[in-house]
Amino acid sequence: MFKHILIPTDGSDPAMRAVTTGIQLAAQLGSRVRALHVLTPLPAVNFFADVLQGDVYRKHARERAEANLAKVSEMARAANVPCEVEYLFDNRPYAVIAGVATKYGCDLIVMDAHECNNLERLLLSNTTHKVILSCDVPVLVCH
Questions:
Q1: How far is it, in rounded angstroms, from Cα 29 to Cα 3?
Q2: 62 exposed, middle or buried (CB, 10 Å; 0-12, 13-18, 19+)?
Q3: Structurally, how many domains does the chain consist of?
Q4: How many whole angstroms from its chain centre is CA 8?
Q5: d(CA 4, CA 26)
Q6: Alpha carbon of 10 to those of 2, 30, 88, 109, 112: distances in Å?
Q7: What gap in Å lies between CA 91 and CA 89, rounded to an integer?
Q8: Which CB contacts under 8 angstroms, 24+ apart, belong to 25-28?
Q9: Interval 13-23 mean pLDDT
Q10: How far is residue 97's CA from residue 103's CA, in Å, rounded to a whole number?
């Protein structure tokens, strides 16, 4: 059925619940997973201030992504699920998620919808909604 599951994560509690669901599903199906952390770059003013400070934001963002992806790798290893990880910088996380799913032939995306206000909770998160509209890969939304 599903052989290659993409699990986008930002390391938040809702995202980690989706990671758990995705890994459990992969274990049951004998699938492999690809964990993805999309980091958004700083706006231009902040970017130039950061450059003067030695690119501190990007360094901390990479460290945070690597730590989150290491947790996902460990969870997958504990469940005997093959796992590859990747992080990318982009202003449009939904486009990166859809692109990675296509690039690697993922046949399912498992992600959360953790926006906090009631309207977005009804409509799914903005990123989740855009992923659903941006690719032909089925999306399992965890709440």
A1: 7
A2: middle
A3: 1
A4: 2
A5: 8
A6: 23, 25, 12, 14, 10
A7: 7
A8: 25/108, 25/110, 25/140, 26/2, 26/76, 26/79, 26/81, 27/79, 27/80, 27/81
A9: 96
A10: 10
Q: Identify the domain containing residue 133 by its residue range.
A: 4-142
Copy the structure tokens of residue 122.
């009804």
| Tokens representing residue 60 in the block | 């901390």
Q: How far apart are CA 55 and CA 91, in angstroms?
A: 17
Report the C-alpha dihedral over residues 113, 118, 123, 127, rounded to 10 degrees.
Answer: -40
Q: What is the pLDDT of residues 83-125, one digit of tens each?
A: 999 999 998 999 999 999 999 999 999 999 865 555 544 444 5
Place of tokens 């993409």: 6
What CATH number is given to the structural domain containing 100?
A: 3.40.50.620
Name the token pair of 7. 């699990």
17: tokens are 């619940």
Alpha helices in 1-110 (DSSP H): 13-29, 44-52, 56-78, 93-103
Answer yes or no: are the C-beta atoms of 110 and 142 closer than 8 Å. yes
